[in-house]
UniProtKB/TrEMBL annotation:
GO molecular function terms noted in the UniProt entry: DNA binding
Superkingdom of origin: Bacteria
Transmembrane residue ranges: none
Protein name per the record: Helix-turn-helix domain-containing protein
Pfam families in the cross-refs: HTH_17
Length: 66
């Protein structure tokens, strides 16, 4: 199970790797550009986790498809 958790990234980690703001990553998730797992939350913002493989697929895609 620890290996599975290591393969999940936070919105902040994804934003840092893509060199964009957290808000942009959240917008991509909500619009369906980026697949994410929704976590239960009690705060203001919805918590998400993104699979590392999803990020790698996005990075490998041609720029025009983003």
């Amino acid at each position: 199970m620890a290996n599975e958790e290591a393969d999940l990234l936070t919105v902040g980690e994804v934003a840092k790797q893509l060199r964009v703001d957290d808000t942009t990553v959240r917008r991509w998730i909500k619009s369906g550009v980026l697949e994410a797992i929704s976590l239960p939350h009690s705060g203001i913002r919805q918590a998400y986790r993104i699979r590392r493989s999803t990020l790698e697929t996005l990075l490998a895609a041609p720029p025009s498809s983003i």
